[in-house]
Design a protein that fits this description.
The structure holds 2 protein chains of 2 kinds. Helices cover about 70% and strands about 0% of the residues of chain A. By secondary structure, chain A is mostly helical. The longest helix of chain A is centred in the first third of the chain and has 37 residues, at about 1-40. The chains are: A mainly alpha, B alpha+beta.
């Protein structure tokens, strides 16, 4: 039993690592294509059919490039920062059920690494730790743009965390559990029982905060290309920059999974159709990240803090109050 | 078209001033602005626009090395030396005006007197690394011999990139098939030039 469990867990971890590392690469391809089509361009076209092998070309380039550590940078912190971003993104995936449990060769597999009873708390906490990557990397780079980016990372960090935490509190009160599987079971009765109908405000708040969490366009101020070059990534090259990249895109996928499971019913009753539904919902949220990047402008750091503290947080608190009154 | 029509700058009467109100200064005005901005669905209009482009699938990209945009006949790219229509001989008479007028000193011309006591061009080179493609040579040429062509891809492995007379001359097969094109740009003959030309006043 013990060895079987160990082997199963290790296999699951490996599968998640490999699948989502690959997905992060393919995600960049989709991002470039979708953005190009929305801007009447073609996107990558030359490497492979319709540019499909561009991902491989980028990967080879990133992995074989010279690894440069600037002389004035604080080398140990500079080197560990991208690892923080990438590893925390994948650590957060441990508590996410990616598919309903299925039976293969007479062995029941639960596609979740660890169904811990503090699932959401763990995911939000680990994703929050992920922002230490930009923060430490930006401060250790000995570059003014990186330093600005680190300062912005701090401001983002203290802004969105309060919204994610408070907005998720009301659904947690309804489900009275923090496990994502319990969330899924709570909404397994079909489309009418989805959390989005009983907690629309929390859904919108969490969605908005997830943009700040992943650093996507309306709140893409940590690495805003047209203001501060590449922000914390300015001094990074090769595989270290690639780790930042993988972490960022894996984070987008995981946040899309979390939103789908929390508010849109997850995999429902656990049938094959439900599993496909979860993937479809996840794909929509991932697509929405790309979509907003083509359409929306960026906000300033002070506007993000204003939005999170003065607008979203009061709404979240009101939402909790109303939910509590209704529950009682 | 008369001169008055050119000078008339009132092209359209459809210009109007955009209605921009001042930013609110008091807090109640700011709150009203936030509410107005939040519930007017402008963000979703933006999303709709880009989604429409995604669905329409109209592409404006020219995949350059495979596709090329047509360029205008007046475009000033690498020079061409034209041949006489009657005899296929080069038009250049070796007067040296192009060398004289060239403001970046990139044209070099050497001539000699041949056995028929006519001036013959022995050496003619243009340093494209220096040439600024101003078109003065084409304008000054009395024989319409040196003109600009449409060949704009002149990547080179060094800054000095010379082209000589044989490179620029219209190839003989092109000439014999009658497809040598006259340059329409700077220095070319204007249309209806025949009607306007005056006879040389030999009388005085």
């Amino acid at each position: 039993m013990e060895t079987a469990y160990l082997i199963e867990t290790v296999v699951k971890i490996l599968v998640i690592l490999l699948v989502f590392s690959a997905l992060a690469g393919i995600g960049t391809y989709f991002e470039r294509k979708v953005l190009a089509f929305m801007q009447r361009r073609l996107g990558p076209m030359n490497v492979g059919p319709y540019g499909l092998l561009q991902v491989a070309a980028d990967g080879i380039k990133l992995f074989t490039k010279e690894d440069i550590v600037p002389t004035s940078a604080v080398a140990p912190i500079f080197k560990i920062a991208p690892i923080i971003t990438a590893s925390t993104a994948f650590m957060a995936a441990a508590a996410i059920p990616f598919l309903p449990s299925f039976t293969i060769f007479g062995y029941e597999v639960h596609p979740i690494v660890a169904d811990i009873n503090i699932g959401i708390l763990y995911i939000l906490g680990i994703m929050g730790v992920g922002l230490y990557g930009p923060l430490l990397g930006g401060m250790a780079s000995a570059n003014k743009f990186s330093l600005l980016s680190a300062a912005r990372a701090t401001s983002v960090f203290i802004s969105y965390e309060v919204v994610t935490g408070l907005s998720i509190l009301a659904p947690v009160m309804l489900v009275s559990s923090l496990s994502l599987i319990d969330f899924n079971e709570y909404q397994s009765g079909g489309i009418t029982e989805w959390m989005i109908w009983s907690q629309p405000v929390a859904f919108v708040l969490f969605w908005i905060a997830s943009f700040a969490e992943t650093g996507r366009t309306p709140f893409h101020l940590i690495a805003n290309d047209h203001e501060i070059v590449d922000g914390f990534g300015t001094e990074y090259s090769g595989i270290r920059w690639g780790l930042f990249f993988i972490g960022e895109y894996a984070n987008m996928f995981f946040v899309s999974f979390v939103i789908s499971i929390l508010f849109l019913g997850g995999y429902g009753d656990g049938s094959f159709l439900g599993a496909l539904g979860l993937l479809a919902k996840m794909s929509f949220f991932f697509f929405f990240f790309l979509w907003t990047r083509a359409a929306w402008p960026d906000v300033r750091p002070d506007q993000l803090m204003w939005l999170c503290w003065k607008v979203l947080m009061p709404i979240a608190v009101l939402n909790i109050l109303v939910t509590a009154i209704v529950l009682i | 078209m008369k001169n008055e029509e050119f000078n008339n700058r009132e092209i359209s009467n459809e210009y109007f001033l955009v209605d921009i109100t001042d930013y609110p200064t008091d807090s109640w005005g700011k709150i009203k602005r936030v509410i107005k901005r939040s519930f007017r669905v402008e963000l979703f209009v933006g999303l709709g626009v880009v989604l429409r482009e995604l669905v329409w699938f109209k592409k404006h990209t020219v995949s350059y090395p495979e596709e090329k945009m047509p360029i205008g006949p007046r475009y000033r790219a690498v020079h061409e030396m034209k041949r006489l229509l009657e005899s296929d001989i080069e038009r250049c008479i070796g007067c040296g005006l192009c060398e004289k007028i060239c403001i970046s000193n990139c044209i070099k011309i050497d001539t000699k007197i041949d056995e028929n006591s006519r001036k013959e061009v022995t050496d003619y080179t243009i340093n494209l690394g220096r040439c600024i493609f101003c078109g003065y040579c084409a304008e000054v040429c009395p024989e319409l011999a040196i003109t600009h062509g449409g060949r704009y891809e002149n990547a080179s492995d060094q800054r000095e990139h010379y082209v000589d007379l044989n490179y620029m001359l219209t190839p003989l097969d092109v000439m014999r098939s009658g497809s040598q094109k006259e340059f329409e740009g700077f220095g070319a003959i204007t249309p209806h030039e025949d009607e306007r030309v005056k006879k040389t006043p030999l009388a005085y």
